[in-house]
Design brief:
Blueprint (H helix, E strand, L loop, with lengths): L8 H19 L1 H12 L3 H6 L14 H4 L7 H22 L1 H22 L11 H14 L4 E8 L2 E8 H19 L9 H18 L2 H8 L1
Antiparallel strand pairs: 1-2
Helix pairs in contact: 1-5, 5-6, 5-7, 6-7, 6-9, 7-8, 7-9, 8-9
Length: 223
């Protein structure tokens, strides 16, 4: 329940780029898909050692900190990420403006990848997905629209109801879930989920919005 004042062009554009990149990789077949995600994904070992040895890329290895946020491992992976992007990023773009939002989104994605690299610097598993960058949008949303209503599916016995919940509750529960999984994982593989990337992206987005939110928007939020 938080309509935008203008068309969120950048949000739509990012969504389209993610979907096109995923479909293109899928068209390469199972082997080609795996090779593409590995080549364009961020491999912590390569970043920390400055080498391009695990899965060679056609560009400098550090560029994968950006390319990785446009690659996804499967249909569920991209579906959930694009859903969260659709729900939260448009309002963040509305606050920051289109160009600033694009820069903000990319910085959150890079910060999330760096957080995962720092957490597991010797890993040779490719990190892919927009979840870290999208988590940045969630952190920014917490700053700008903590009281906005988010419609959530809530199971009540055998029934499922759609209940409006304040964004601050939804987002803090989401962040708490990431912290809980880091604690449960205890430094393990995380079941294929980059929890540290989620946390890093969220914190980066929160801090950047706290610092960079336009003054006129800040007054409207605080009053």
């Amino acid at each position: 329940d938080n309509p935008t004042h203008r068309v969120p062009v950048m949000t739509y554009g990012i969504l389209v780029v993610n979907v096109v990149a995923f479909l293109y990789a899928k068209l390469l077949g199972s082997t080609g898909f795996g090779a593409a995600t590995s080549s364009w994904g961020t491999i912590p070992f390569e970043i920390t050692h400055g080498v391009d040895a695990i899965s060679p890329t056609p560009f400098p290895v550090y560029a994968t900190l950006v390319t990785s946020m446009f690659m996804h491992a499967g249909w569920m992976h991209i579906g959930l990420n694009m859903l969260y992007l659709w729900v939260f990023a448009n309002n963040v773009e509305d606050v920051l403006g289109r160009v600033r939002f694009l820069v903000f989104y990319l910085l959150c994605g890079v910060a999330s990848a760096c957080a995962q690299v720092l957490a597991d610097p010797e890993s040779t598993i490719p990190l892919v997905g927009a979840s870290g960058a999208v988590a940045g949008a969630l952190g920014a949303y917490l700053v700008a629209f903590p009281g906005a209503s988010v419609h959530v599916l809530v199971p009540i016995f055998f029934f499922i109801r759609i209940v409006p919940v304040p964004a601050v509750v939804v987002l803090l529960m989401w962040f708490g879930f990431q912290l809980l999984n880091v604690w449960l994982d205890q430094g393990g593989a995380g079941g294929g989920v980059a929890w540290y990337a989620h946390i890093g992206g969220f914190v980066a987005g929160y801090l950047m919005m706290r610092i960079g939110m336009p003054p006129n928007r800040r007054r409207r939020v605080e009053t």
